[in-house]
C-alpha cells in the first residue's frame, strides 16, 4: 500500500507529544496479580500465560512481561465484565497463528487468544524504525502500549463471541472501538495505547504498490483508516488536552469536528452492549 511519509511522521510525532503531556507511562511499571473474578454466576476470567518462545523472540517477550502492561489490561477487563468461562491469553512460539482470538471450532474446545513471539519481534523492529529520532518514548514503552491495544482488541472479539453481543458492520472495526473505549475511559491507561497502535499499524503496512482487491476485501479497514480513527477517538475523548494531534500532518480539522460526537457514541454504545454483563 502506498502511504505518504507525512502519515508516518504524524503518528510518531503525535505519540511523542502525548508522552510529554501525560503522566508516567503505564506500560513501564510493575503490576499486581490479576484478582480472581467475584461476579455471581459468571466465574470465568481472562488469564495471561507466557509459554515457550524461540531464542530470538525472548528478549522482547521478557521486556513486555516485566512491564506488566498486558496484565493490567486483563485486570481491567476482569474487573469490568463477567464472562462464562476462562479464556487463556497465550504468548507462545508453539503456534504461528495470531494475534487472534480462536473460538471453539469444529467440535474442538479451543477458545483462547494466541499471540506469537515472532509478532512481538516484528513490532519491536517496526517501532524502532517508526520512532527513530523520537526521544520522549522508548521502543520498549511503545511496544508495551501497542500491545495493550492489541490485547484489548482481541478481548473484544472474545466478548462478542462469548456474550453473544450484537454487532452491525465490521466486527474488526467494532472491537477496535472496544479497545479505545476500554483504554481511554479507564484512568489507569489513557490515550498512549491507541496512539502507539496507530504508529505500529502505520509502520508494518506493506508498501507493495497500488491497492488491490484483497486490500478492499479484507475484514479490517485499511491501515490508514485505522490510524486516523484511533486519532479521532483519542482527540474526541478530550479535545482540549489533545489539540496537538490536529492540523498539518495530523488529524484533519474537518474530521476533528466530528470526533467528540463519535467518541460519545462509542462510549454510549459499549456501555449499553455490556450493561447486562457488568460486574457489581
Write the layout of secondary structure elements.
Layout: H1 5-21, E1 46-50, H2 58-67, H3 69-80, E2 87-92, E3 100-102, E4 112-116, H4 117-130, H5 139-162, H6 171-185, H7 192-203, H8 213-217, H9 223-237, H10 253-274
Parallel strand pairs: 1-2, 2-4
Antiparallel strand pairs: 3-4
What does it look like?
- Helix content is 52%, strand content 7%.
- By secondary structure, it is α/β, with parallel strands linked by helices.
- The N terminus is likely disordered.
- Strands 1-2-4-3 form a 4-stranded mixed sheet.
Which features characterize this protein?
280 residues; alpha/beta; four-stranded mixed β-sheet; globular; 4 strands; 10 helices
Run of helices and strands = HEHHEEEHHHHHHH
Q: Provide the β-strand percentage band.
A: 5-15%
Structural class call reads: alpha/beta
Q: Could you tell me the radius of gyration in angstroms?
A: 18 Å
Give the structure's gist in a few sentences:
The protein contains 10 helices and 4 strands, in the order H-E-H-H-E-E-E-H-H-H-H-H-H-H.
